[in-house]
Amino acid sequence: RSKKAKLQSVEHYSGSSNSGPSPVQQNLKKLFDKYRDDPTNEPDRIGLEGTMGYFEALGIGLDDVIFLAMFDLLDAPEMGVLTRESFVNNWSNVSTPSNPCDNEKSQKLYIETLRQKLKSDPAYFRQVYKGSFTYAKPAGQRVVPLEDSFAFWDMFFGGGKGGIQWNSPTTKWYDLWREYYEGKNKRPVNKDLWNQVAELVAKTREEGGETLGWWSEDGAWPTAVDEFVAFVKEKREKGGAMDTT
Amino acid sequence: MAPVAASNPANRGRDNLESTWAYLEENVEKVMTKLREGVDMKTYMGVYTRVHNFCTSQKPTTTSPAGAAHSASRGAHLLGQEIYDKLGEYLSKHLAEVNARADTHTDEALLSFYIREWKRYTDAAKYNNHLFKYLNRHWVKREMDEGKKNIYDIYTLHLVKWKDDFFQKVQERVMQAVLKLVEKQRNGETIEQLQVKAIVDSFVSLGLDENDPTKSTLDVYRRYFEAPFLTATKDYYQRESKLFVAENSVVEYMKKAEARLDEEKERVGLYLHPDIMKKLMDVCNEALITDHSLLLRDEFQVLLDNERVDDLTRMYKLLSRIKDGLDPLRNRFEAHVRKAGLASVDKVASSGDNFEPKVYIDALLDIHSKYQQLVTVAFTGESEFVRSLDNACKEFVNRNEVCKSNSSRSPELLAKYTDQLLKKGAKAADESELEDLLLQIMVVFKYIEDKDVFQKFYSRMLAKRLVNVSSVSDDAETSMISKLKEACGFEYTNKLQRMFQDIQVSKDLNSAYKDWYDKVMEDSSKKRTIDSTYQILGTSFWPLNPPNSPFSPPTEVNEAIDAFKRFYDGKHTGRKLTWLWQLCKGEVRANYVKQGKVPYTFMVSTYQMAVLLLFNEQETLDYADIKEYTQLSDDILDTAVMGVFQKARVVTATPEGGKPEAGTKYTLNRGFKNKKLKVNLNVPIKSEQKTESDETHKTVEEDRKLLLQAVIVRIMKGRKKLRHVQLVEEVITQVKNRFPPKVSDIKKNIDILMEKDYIERLDNDELAYIA
Description:
- The complex is a heterodimer of chains A (about 240) and B (about 775).
- Chain A has about 240 residues and is mostly helical.
- Helices cover about 60% and strands about 5% of the residues of chain A.
- In chain B, the strands form three sheets. In chain B, strands 1-2-6 form a three-stranded mixed beta sheet. In chain B, strands 3-5-4 form a three-stranded antiparallel beta sheet.
- In chain B, helix 2 (about 40-55) runs parallel beside helix 5 and helix 18 (about 450-465) crosses helix 25.
- In chain B, about 30% of the residues are buried.
- The longest helix of chain B is centred in the first third of the chain and has 35 residues, at about 70-100.
- Chain B has about 775 residues and is mainly alpha-helical.
- The chains are: A mainly alpha (about 240), B mainly alpha (about 775).
- The interface between A and B is medium-sized, with 18 and 18 residues.
């Protein structure tokens, strides 16, 4: 996806190379300059502090999935970092003549549509979730530490702002996941498991998915998911409290 | 065309027919009834000529010159037909008389009558066939060539008439008589078997192929003889077996059935047509076996329990005759062997955990050889039973009371037993006996699932045998390795072979070293203080670890190894030698003990040697000093060295019974006494053996993980993309000759490889190799 975005940006630049930067781009560059942390040493980069300020201006909280949707939109290379090229290109890509997203006010309007999309478009939600692995893990590492994983999972699946309420009336899926993962597995989360958690959530939310009938030992699930399913089944056998049938 | 042209010649023809047939009939009648009295040549020639003349007589009467050739043929046709028909009518009349006489006979008399008449009739038929040869050759042949139905040569005409005018009327009664006769025989009476055979032959002869008169079929025989015969047979044996089973044991019944089957088979050879064999056997099998198969199978367990080999053989033979007859037996047999195996192991395990490996392996082998023999003898070595045996053995070898807590106990014990056999000192078997025992080991090995565990233990023990020069013989070692190689392939034994090679190479190296030493060090002021030999063991082939205790070797040893190093470095550059002190050993002579002329020799470990040599300088040493000089870690110094010395009274401690700690002083015991002159102080410590076993099991786990990952990567590298399920299947296939992998373990290693970026997930269940 990020490759695609870059291709678009090349087009954009080549399109405007004759006539120079468009007014939208000019405005975006100015907007970008406004939030830079260190204009002298890092003129093309907004750091954590600047990003916070920018998000605050846009009314985006850091406990809300929307902030990860923003990183997704703007191709943030790492948590809390925005680069000039991505910033300008991606915002101008989503700009329309009726709503040129070159100022905080109109960007806020666009962000509102993203919030709606997160709720209505599961594929988009999953894209944002999967992309967030990059922001969840410490730079240069392959895995997300346990606590950080849950900070993100809380947001996406714990019924936090902009996320999914994985707990259902019959089964407290998210609570069980937390109990299993924090209590038994405890391992840092790798990318595959990160991605497959989204698939797991989707499976349980399918029609009849709560019975776990879709699971089979020969399936391609990561070990952690296999273990979680066994954990849930055992709980159900013992307690019967969360019987979904 | 009208049969007869209304003209004068036609009238002549009719006269001709009447007179000709009158003559012919008289003579045919003679042939029919008085053939025995003989027919003279004159009559024979007369009949033949009259037939010939009759058939050719009409030729000149043809009227139409245009179609001369054609008409000629039709003329002959018409005339032949008339004689043919007359003969047919005559035969029908004749057979009606025969039939009338047949009514006066029943049972065996009827059979005799039928057979007699058949003989007479067919003999006459053959003769008549000659008499009417001209008709056969010309008229009959032409009719048949033109595809006319129901025209036969004269002999066949006789048969057809017999069949239609006599056989059809009498066959049912004849068969009743036949069946009665056969039943009599089955009941043990003597009968005239040839009568039945004659009937069979007669019925077979009547099988005429409607489409090709030159051929015969078995249709008549099958319908009128075989079918009722089979039905009667089935009824007879159903009745008989039901009664017999009610009054006799199953074993008796099997004997009876076996005898009956043999009898019926023999019957076919004696007087039935061979065509009936399969059907007769099917009918008998059904009545005698299939109908009672449940009863037989129920007895199987009883026979197994009582080891009734002959009866089991009998049962196998009987049930192998019917479809799917043996399948239930195989399952029971498998369960029985498994149970026997488990019981055998239970017995071993009941006396605690300290049994000898041999006892355990023998317990496994006993059961295997017992039932293997049964399979060979009673079940003719049939491959499906062999498979059942294998399944059962695999079960009880890998999952039994002894393996309950640790599934890899079997391979461990098997390796230990092998070690005992291949080690010097044990009750050494002679060469061929040892070879037999090794073959037995391979029998158990075949069933071991965790072959990798066996390999681990085996290689450790082999290493020990080689390092300690305690192998019973090189031949036996090579023999065992080649057996393992044959069973598991080159990779499995590669390291074992390399270890073996290292030892051979080391032997040459030592003699080269001695030569070198004598030459180079001769002039050296340093006198050789110790006589040393060396083994150079390739790090990657030997399951050996560097010593886990620091050690400062005594000067004498240091000098020796320095010399060796000079020699070795001269031969090979860039090789690093790590001294495995924990495996080194030597002998020291206790010259300080005054008694006796020959001094004691102590067989010691290098660690022990290092301590003993310290006493060359001082009679009494403090623990702290010993520790300081040797650098040995506490666990070794305290038990394996000082503990052993104290126990053997090589040294005495002050204070008496003092613990190995600073302040305790050790004094050389000059009053040392022992029954033997050679005293072995280099004794293994029990706890060491236990930890070694645990360690081996641990490395197995680690190696399995690595093997699984290597296999996964290899498969993915070859396939690039693969469904998860297929990958798991392929891994199992590739790994199962080493150990049975758990699906969850394979998955775990897939997880790990994803984390390491060797493979990635394309979509939910498809994986891809990352180049």
